[in-house]
Amino acid sequence: MVLERGRIGESWRTQRWDTFRLNTPGWMNQLLGQQARDSYATGVEVIQRLEKLAATCPVREGVPVARLAPAGDRFVLPTVRGDLLARTVVVATGDQNLPKIPALAGTFPDRVAHYHTADYRGPDQLPDGAVLVVGSTQSGCQIAQDLRAGGRRVVLATSPVGRVPFRHRGRETIEWLAEAGFMDQRPVTYPTHRSCGPPCRSSPPGAA
Protein backbone atom coordinates (compact mmCIF):
# COMPACT_ATOMS: atom_id res chain seq x y z
CA MET A 1 0.00 0.00 0.00
CA VAL A 2 1.27 3.47 -0.92
CA LEU A 3 0.10 6.46 1.10
CA GLU A 4 0.20 9.81 -0.73
CA ARG A 5 -0.53 12.95 1.30
CA GLY A 6 -1.69 14.83 -1.80
CA ARG A 7 -2.50 13.72 -5.33
CA ILE A 8 -0.39 11.45 -7.50
CA GLY A 9 2.65 13.51 -8.44
CA GLU A 10 1.60 16.37 -6.15
CA SER A 11 4.90 18.24 -6.17
CA TRP A 12 5.08 17.87 -9.95
CA ARG A 13 1.68 19.51 -10.21
CA THR A 14 2.21 22.36 -7.77
CA GLN A 15 5.96 23.08 -7.63
CA ARG A 16 7.09 23.11 -11.26
CA TRP A 17 7.21 25.93 -13.80
CA ASP A 18 5.45 25.71 -17.16
CA THR A 19 8.55 24.92 -19.25
CA PHE A 20 10.09 22.49 -16.75
CA ARG A 21 11.95 19.45 -18.06
CA LEU A 22 13.73 16.61 -16.30
CA ASN A 23 17.49 17.03 -16.10
CA THR A 24 18.14 13.38 -16.87
CA PRO A 25 17.51 11.71 -20.26
CA GLY A 26 14.98 8.99 -20.99
CA TRP A 27 17.44 6.12 -20.67
CA MET A 28 17.93 7.02 -16.99
CA ASN A 29 14.20 7.14 -16.19
CA GLN A 30 12.98 3.68 -17.10
CA LEU A 31 10.66 3.61 -14.09
CA LEU A 32 8.51 6.15 -15.95
CA GLY A 33 8.00 3.75 -18.84
CA GLN A 34 9.30 3.53 -22.39
CA GLN A 35 10.55 6.81 -23.85
CA ALA A 36 13.10 8.07 -26.32
CA ARG A 37 16.65 7.48 -25.09
CA ASP A 38 17.76 11.10 -25.36
CA SER A 39 14.43 12.77 -24.52
CA TYR A 40 13.89 15.08 -21.56
CA ALA A 41 10.36 14.69 -20.25
CA THR A 42 8.27 17.75 -19.43
CA GLY A 43 6.52 18.18 -16.10
CA VAL A 44 3.17 17.30 -17.69
CA GLU A 45 4.63 14.11 -19.15
CA VAL A 46 6.02 13.10 -15.76
CA ILE A 47 2.60 13.55 -14.15
CA GLN A 48 0.91 11.49 -16.85
CA ARG A 49 3.47 8.72 -16.51
CA LEU A 50 3.18 8.69 -12.70
CA GLU A 51 -0.61 8.46 -12.98
CA LYS A 52 -0.30 5.52 -15.36
CA LEU A 53 2.16 3.81 -13.03
CA ALA A 54 -0.03 4.45 -9.97
CA ALA A 55 -3.08 3.01 -11.71
CA THR A 56 -1.57 -0.45 -11.29
CA CYS A 57 -0.63 0.08 -7.63
CA PRO A 58 -2.59 0.22 -4.34
CA VAL A 59 -2.22 3.99 -3.86
CA ARG A 60 -4.32 5.99 -1.40
CA GLU A 61 -4.34 9.71 -2.15
CA GLY A 62 -4.97 12.43 0.43
CA VAL A 63 -3.56 10.39 3.32
CA PRO A 64 -0.78 12.26 5.15
CA VAL A 65 1.22 10.39 7.80
CA ALA A 66 2.68 12.50 10.59
CA ARG A 67 3.91 9.77 12.92
CA LEU A 68 5.23 6.23 12.92
CA ALA A 69 5.44 4.19 16.11
CA PRO A 70 6.30 0.58 17.05
CA ALA A 71 3.39 -1.65 18.02
CA GLY A 72 4.66 -5.05 19.09
CA ASP A 73 6.14 -6.73 16.02
CA ARG A 74 4.54 -4.12 13.76
CA PHE A 75 4.34 -0.38 13.21
CA VAL A 76 1.29 1.80 13.63
CA LEU A 77 0.68 4.73 11.28
CA PRO A 78 -1.99 7.16 12.50
CA THR A 79 -3.75 8.75 9.49
CA VAL A 80 -6.83 10.89 8.85
CA ARG A 81 -8.55 7.70 7.73
CA GLY A 82 -7.70 5.72 10.84
CA ASP A 83 -4.70 3.80 12.13
CA LEU A 84 -2.83 1.36 9.90
CA LEU A 85 -0.67 -1.54 11.04
CA ALA A 86 2.26 -2.78 8.98
CA ARG A 87 5.17 -5.14 9.48
CA THR A 88 7.35 -3.27 7.03
CA VAL A 89 7.38 0.47 6.27
CA VAL A 90 9.34 2.30 3.58
CA VAL A 91 9.62 6.04 4.16
CA ALA A 92 9.99 7.67 0.74
CA THR A 93 9.16 11.31 1.39
CA GLY A 94 12.14 12.82 -0.39
CA ASP A 95 14.10 15.75 1.00
CA GLN A 96 13.22 18.62 -1.32
CA ASN A 97 9.43 18.81 -1.41
CA LEU A 98 9.09 21.54 1.24
CA PRO A 99 10.36 24.98 0.13
CA LYS A 100 13.10 26.45 2.32
CA ILE A 101 13.16 30.25 2.30
CA PRO A 102 16.15 32.00 3.91
CA ALA A 103 15.35 34.40 6.75
CA LEU A 104 17.00 37.15 4.69
CA ALA A 105 13.99 37.11 2.38
CA GLY A 106 11.91 38.62 5.17
CA THR A 107 14.07 41.74 5.17
CA PHE A 108 13.48 42.68 1.52
CA PRO A 109 11.63 45.97 0.95
CA ASP A 110 8.10 45.71 -0.46
CA ARG A 111 9.27 47.00 -3.84
CA VAL A 112 11.37 43.85 -4.33
CA ALA A 113 9.24 40.89 -5.36
CA HIS A 114 10.71 37.49 -4.55
CA TYR A 115 9.59 33.97 -5.38
CA HIS A 116 10.72 30.53 -4.38
CA THR A 117 11.39 28.04 -7.17
CA ALA A 118 8.30 26.10 -6.07
CA ASP A 119 6.11 29.16 -6.72
CA TYR A 120 7.56 30.21 -10.08
CA ARG A 121 5.49 29.42 -13.17
CA GLY A 122 6.71 31.74 -15.94
CA PRO A 123 8.11 35.19 -16.88
CA ASP A 124 4.68 36.86 -17.05
CA GLN A 125 4.13 36.08 -13.39
CA LEU A 126 6.85 38.53 -12.33
CA PRO A 127 6.57 42.33 -12.30
CA ASP A 128 8.52 44.38 -14.84
CA GLY A 129 12.25 44.78 -14.35
CA ALA A 130 15.42 42.75 -14.20
CA VAL A 131 15.45 39.41 -12.39
CA LEU A 132 18.11 37.97 -10.09
CA VAL A 133 18.10 34.18 -9.99
CA VAL A 134 19.91 32.89 -6.91
CA GLY A 135 21.33 29.42 -7.34
CA SER A 136 22.88 27.98 -10.47
CA THR A 137 22.07 24.30 -10.29
CA GLN A 138 19.49 22.69 -12.58
CA SER A 139 16.46 24.66 -11.35
CA GLY A 140 18.23 28.02 -11.35
CA CYS A 141 19.71 27.54 -14.81
CA GLN A 142 16.42 26.33 -16.26
CA ILE A 143 14.48 29.25 -14.79
CA ALA A 144 17.11 31.73 -15.96
CA GLN A 145 16.81 30.29 -19.46
CA ASP A 146 13.01 30.51 -19.27
CA LEU A 147 13.18 34.15 -18.19
CA ARG A 148 15.62 35.00 -20.99
CA ALA A 149 13.34 33.36 -23.53
CA GLY A 150 10.56 35.55 -22.13
CA GLY A 151 12.55 38.69 -22.88
CA ARG A 152 13.65 39.42 -19.35
CA ARG A 153 17.06 40.76 -18.27
CA VAL A 154 18.52 38.08 -16.01
CA VAL A 155 21.41 37.98 -13.56
CA LEU A 156 22.35 34.47 -12.42
CA ALA A 157 24.12 34.20 -9.05
CA THR A 158 26.48 31.25 -9.28
CA SER A 159 28.68 29.36 -6.84
CA PRO A 160 32.26 28.01 -7.16
CA VAL A 161 31.00 24.43 -7.59
CA GLY A 162 32.64 22.61 -10.47
CA ARG A 163 30.96 22.27 -13.86
CA VAL A 164 31.44 20.18 -16.96
CA PRO A 165 30.17 20.69 -20.52
CA PHE A 166 26.86 19.10 -21.50
CA ARG A 167 28.48 17.05 -24.26
CA HIS A 168 31.98 15.59 -24.51
CA ARG A 169 33.36 13.70 -27.51
CA GLY A 170 29.95 13.22 -29.07
CA ARG A 171 28.19 11.93 -25.95
CA GLU A 172 26.34 13.59 -23.10
CA THR A 173 28.58 14.03 -20.09
CA ILE A 174 26.05 12.38 -17.81
CA GLU A 175 26.42 9.22 -19.92
CA TRP A 176 30.20 9.30 -19.42
CA LEU A 177 29.68 9.75 -15.67
CA ALA A 178 27.26 6.82 -15.45
CA GLU A 179 29.59 4.57 -17.45
CA ALA A 180 32.55 5.54 -15.25
CA GLY A 181 30.63 4.53 -12.10
CA PHE A 182 30.10 8.04 -10.77
CA MET A 183 26.38 7.40 -10.17
CA ASP A 184 27.18 4.24 -8.20
CA GLN A 185 29.13 6.06 -5.50
CA ARG A 186 27.74 6.18 -1.98
CA PRO A 187 27.94 9.21 0.34
CA VAL A 188 30.46 7.42 2.56
CA THR A 189 32.91 7.28 -0.33
CA TYR A 190 33.18 11.07 -0.54
CA PRO A 191 36.07 12.70 1.35
CA THR A 192 34.75 14.38 4.50
CA HIS A 193 36.68 17.55 3.72
CA ARG A 194 34.96 18.10 0.40
CA SER A 195 32.85 21.26 0.59
CA CYS A 196 31.14 20.96 -2.78
CA GLY A 197 28.82 18.31 -4.13
CA PRO A 198 29.06 16.39 -7.41
CA PRO A 199 29.92 18.51 -10.45
CA CYS A 200 27.03 20.17 -12.24
CA ARG A 201 26.73 20.17 -15.99
CA SER A 202 25.72 22.91 -18.34
CA SER A 203 22.25 22.46 -19.80
CA PRO A 204 21.23 22.31 -23.45
CA PRO A 205 18.27 24.36 -24.75
CA GLY A 206 15.02 22.85 -23.59
CA ALA A 207 16.53 20.68 -20.88
CA ALA A 208 17.69 21.13 -17.34
Report on the architecture of this protein.
It contains four helices and eleven strands. It is an alpha/beta fold and 208 residues long. The strands form five sheets. Strands 3-4-5 form a three-stranded antiparallel β-sheet, with no helix packed on it. Strands 1-2 form a two-stranded parallel ribbon. Strands 6-7 form a two-stranded parallel ribbon. The longest helix is centred in the N-terminal third of the chain and has 12 residues, at 43-54. Mean pLDDT is 88; it is low at 195-208.
Strand residue content: 15-25%
Low-confidence stretches at least 5 residues in length (pLDDT < 50)?
195-208
Kindly report the spatial arrangement of strands forming the biggest sheet.
3-4-5
Q: How many angstroms does the end-to-end distance come to?
A: 33 Å
Mean pLDDT: 88
What's the helix count? Answer: 4
What is the structural class?
alpha/beta
User: Roughly what percent helix?
Assistant: 10-25%
**What's the overall geometry?**
globular
Nearest-angstrom radius of gyration? 20 Å
The topology string of helices and strands comes to: EHHEEEEEHEEEEHE
State the major sheet.
3 strands, antiparallel
Q: Quick one: how many beta strands? A: 11
State the gist of this model.
The protein has four helices and eleven strands, in the order E-H-H-E-E-E-E-E-H-E-E-E-E-H-E.
